[in-house]
TrEMBL record:
Signal peptide positions (record): none
Protein name per the record: ROK family protein
Xref: Gene3D superfamilies: 3.30.420.40
Superkingdom of the source species: Bacteria
Lineage: Bacteria, Pseudomonadati, Pseudomonadota, Alphaproteobacteria, Caulobacterales
InterPro entries: ATPase_NBD, ROK, ROK_cs
Amino acid sequence: MSQPVFLAVETGGTKIVWRIADASGVALDEGRFPTGRPEDAAEQLVAAVADREVAALGVASFGPVIADPASDDYGRMLPTPKPGWAGFNLARALSERLDAPYAVDTDVNAAARAEAALGAGRGARAVAYVTVGTGVGGGLVVDGRTLKGALHPEIGHLSVRRAPGDAQASACPFHDDCVEGLAAGPAVQARLAGRRLEAAPGVRGFVADYLGQLVAALVFAWAPDRIVFGGGVMSTPGLLAEVETAARRAVAGYGSAVVMGAAGYLVPAALEHAGLEGALLMARDVKRL
């Protein structure tokens, strides 16, 4: 009889990725498919498992999602613009179909955990992970535990001060001056008007300024030992160094900002699929009651 396996799932705005691994973490199978309807996602994931016995599953979810294990609604999606997902509980649906316990966290919290354990955050006690792509999100892990409270961190919607001369309309439907609305992928593309970010120093300056202000906010609020940056926007050559310069300007040497004196405080992500790796770590930690 084959040994039970672990199922890791990461949900995103456009795609869902999954991996099946054995008890040692070795991948046995993996795949991806468009996000679509949540009921269809559940069916496809159950089909992917086939006749394997699942010991536990971990779901790294886009937000907002109820990530408190003590809640009766643990894993349920809160109102979201993604059609059909509001109120759906993918993890619970899979748990019932596969007869397996589950763990849920945000995709960015899961990525933070993976980078802390396996990637660019190794050796640091408190690791913040920031992704700058279609949106801006962030998670924090301290001693292997991610930050969750009444909800979960939504750092992309922190307000920032507009840089002088920036009259670009916010891409966020909720806020005129949040970091996501001014520096995430859609905002960057609107600013570029067909150019490439590495060839547009003025646009890059705005993006670095807002992300630097975000870093300052994280330094003052969370005081992490290290901040790991991921996401498509951050793949732009030289951008991370510009963000660090802007962050130092924003913190202005105050208080907990001394941590920024250490080399390698802002670092690029090391894992290609950090959210999925985090979901697998979550699954392997689940204890059947």
